[in-house]
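To illustrate this point, what follows is a protein record of this kind.

___
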Amino acid sequence: MNRKKRQPKVVVIGGGTGLPVILRGLRDKDVDITAIVTVADDGGSSGILRNYINVVPPGDIRNVLAALSDWPDLALDVFQYRFDSSDKFLAGHAIGNLVIAALSEMKSGIFEAVQALTSMMDIHGHVYPVANEPLVLNAEFKDGSELSGESEITAAHKEIKRVWVTPSDNTDGHEPAAVDEVIDSILNADQIVIGPGSLFTSILPNLMIRNVGKAVCETAAEVVYICNIMTQKGETDNMTDADHVRILNRHLGHNFVNTILVNTEPVPADYMDYQRWNELSRPVKHDFQGLRDQDVRVVSTSFLKLKDNGAFHDSEKVVNELMNRLQQSHD
């Protein structure tokens, strides 16, 4: 009897611009993809929509849906289209953000809205907002001060000690929690991929939801962290790759990162346009002993793609390494 081989389950957790890059590379592989996306963004069109109609900020979710969709190019271009500033009423809004906001009202929540869009947009795999309500990111800085809101935290340009999330509507004092589908996907995964993305504002907001962090620590899957190539102003200035992992582990109270992908290809100093990519600071320094001290397996090679005078992860190289890791963990 011919039995169809089970596709390995790969769960990618994050937000921001790094997540769609990895998902685009994974969609053509023989894997069952689940993307778990942050809901704590408060900038741009997402922030405006959130302030007006109290929906989960849709920007990161929109980009993930577009990355995994089989829609023709024109349909995706319309979904991603952002009105320019001369369109006063709709200035800055992406059409996809408005569609997600509308469906959130129609379906009484972001989770069911995204499931409807998953079907409508011919999505490869699953897209799960990490929570079914908008969350606020909070930070305590090393000087003892505190701030709320992702954009405020980043703009403060102060050293962050720790972050946590609270519901934006916290009148009843409830604790945010992920829905069962999110937790089940983590516990049943063959590989968990975290990053690349802003450490404090794209990655940790997901892991700071108590049942998500618990599941990531308890899963039997290999947890792979894709370390950023560049440090980020106001978030990770002067941090090494080992510092990134140390902060992740400290926030969850457990050494849960099993493997790290580290780029060792130098970024040409004269190539970077730091005015255009003004959130970037300098290449992340390496501390391989610091990583080994945390029982992390280090995969160090060139993951670099130079594009538009910026330094990015090469989707193909990263995904090929993720597939190698999957193969090795199942041999």
Q: What stands out?
A: Residues 9-41+126-330 form a domain with the Rossmann fold fold (CATH 3.40.50.10680). Residues 73 and 300 are 35 Å apart (CA to CA). The mean pLDDT is 89.
